[in-house]
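Sequence in, structure out.
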Amino acid sequence: MNDQPAILLCGHGTTDADAIAGFEAFVAQLRARLPYRRIAHGYLELAQPSFAETIEALHRDGFRDIVALPVLLFTAGHAKHDMPGVLNSIQSSLPNLRIRMGRPLGLTPEVVETACRVAAAAIPPGQSAADTMLLLAGRGTSEPDANGDAAKLARLVAERLGLGFATTAYIAVVPPKPADALALLEHLPFRHGLFMPAVFFDGMLYKQLAAQLAEHQRQSAKQWRMAAPLASESPWIDTFIERLAEVESGKVAMNRKPHAGHACAHPHHHAHHDCCGKHHHG
């Protein structure tokens, strides 16, 4: 049996090859940072390997303690319900296995620094920051704290870079949608716009948002730029080291109380801090 816990990087999963490549490049980067640790990855849905496939392989290799780190920006339904539910079920099916789940990234200094670098890189030299407005596109969720974190990130980036205005749109669940926000921003007295998707990798959502911006630009009187995915800058990786240390030191702060009315295709096994329900110790 291995003494050090294995690290499982938990992705949502997608059918987009660019997003999968970006996620796996991040896995390789973290392995380079922690060469003495066993680091594996899996997906909640839509891609392989699944969580079950990866965890079963780790179990066969002698690991009985796994730290699961969600590769998610904010704490919404996937982090509170879907991922813990699947991990609980897997843990229950394997003998003597403990799975502990860390928190999503959140608004750490490293995440804010990453967003600021990505935004700054999209603004051409000589363009007035004060004459530039920011539209940050969050995923959108029924979890108000996650939506609020997206709005706060937009505000922090705008203040750090000295932008003239900042607001937030959401891809799903809550208004305003990106296309509606873009239309509203046409009425503001700024000549330049920066559109910033709050996504890590160049996947399906990023491409859809790029297409929306291109369509809007054809009829816009303003000059719009699109920021790269957040994984194009590196400071955010340091937060994963912090999340790993939180779990291994027993300072995990995930809160997974049952959430009435939450609907998702994934099974929900609501648990307390140590992800994953009851533990099987011999």
